[in-house]
Amino acid sequence: MNDDKGRPDLRINGERLVSSIKEMGSIGFDPETGGRTRLALSDADKKGRDLLCRWMHEEGLDVKIDQIGNIFGVREGTDPSELPVMVGSHIDTVRDAGMFDGVYGVFGGLEVIRTLNENKVRTRKPLALAAFTNEEGARFQPDMMGSLFYTGTVGLEELLSSKDENGLTAADELDRIGYRGSGTVRAGRYIELHIEQGPRLYAEGLPIGVVRGIQGLAWWAGEYCGESNHAGSTPMDMRKDALLGVAELAAEAEKLALRLGNGSVATMGKISPKPDIINIIPGKCSFTLDFRQFEKSLFEEGKGEIERLITACAEKRGLKYNFRKVAEAPAVVFDSGMVELAERVSARLGLASKRMVSGASHDAQFLSPFCPTVMIFVPSKDGRSHCPEEWTEAEDLENGCNVLLHSVLELV
Ligand code: HGY
Ligand code: MN
Ligand code: MN
To answer: Total domain count for the chain?
Structure first.
């Protein structure tokens, strides 16, 4: 059946989409926390990859794995000289994650392909489904490793030499789970469907966000070194407490984000005092910092200030310090034609949308300079994400996936 412009008037199968997301959500599930953990290149990530590849094969896709473990499934078009329209996201998770972050974009893309297949729709251009390696950066930094490699932004050797906290390299883990390949698929355009992971769509009761850009992200890992000593017998004015220096740094980073304003955010997500014992003054303390901002000059100012604060908070207490930047993704503005396409399709489907900037980083951030790119967001209940409470209603998942389907149909 076609619409009045001759386009196939299809709808995706919402129940099938939700059941696929739930099946992936059972991999790495922890009943105690209610979350699931599929850190990149772990056994759980391998199980998730195996499931995705099986489903890709069942849809007749040509599955290719590249040198960093990115998975591509290609549905061929009638004109082999055309570059594919690519859709996708990631299936790795943070620790104790919800089931939608990343998976929605991958299985939303798979649902589009299933819908085209069951309706026997042939397209001129190929359609490629991508699952990028280590988008989250929860185990190996930098995050968005798969798209950094795919777009040639960072070299393979540098990425593969990244170590997790146990000293295991990405290269060894990629080999261990059997996902180091040699294929690739070039994208002509890229669309990433994702949950918003923030509060705006849910608060405004809007079903669709059309993402016009993504804010810049910078991550650091550092360590302060002072002196371990007895908690009872060391007077307060004779201490070199590394944890206190880090605590002050966390508070200063918050003040900085508030002072810069304009959506600036700063987070110390991880600290690790040593020896981590109740009656010992922490002689060492490692930490991470995450700073984000959309506007270029404020992003630059914030990054400089963070590095100044790391130095100042250590020196104030006579602590030694070291730190390095472990990830950086500049802000991007998406292709206006792709943004307008997603808006037009939403309106045609009777779905209200708003243009927005993404607070979270995504592989689309690196695909964007490489080929015309856009993202489609759906609401996250109460703006919760990167936690077990992450939730998106089935109707919203279905709506977003229909916007993806019809955006794809206009491009292929
Ligand atoms: O935005 C994030 O923290 C993630 O790496 N995508
Ligand atoms: Mn994600
Ligand atoms: Mn995430």
So the answer is: 2
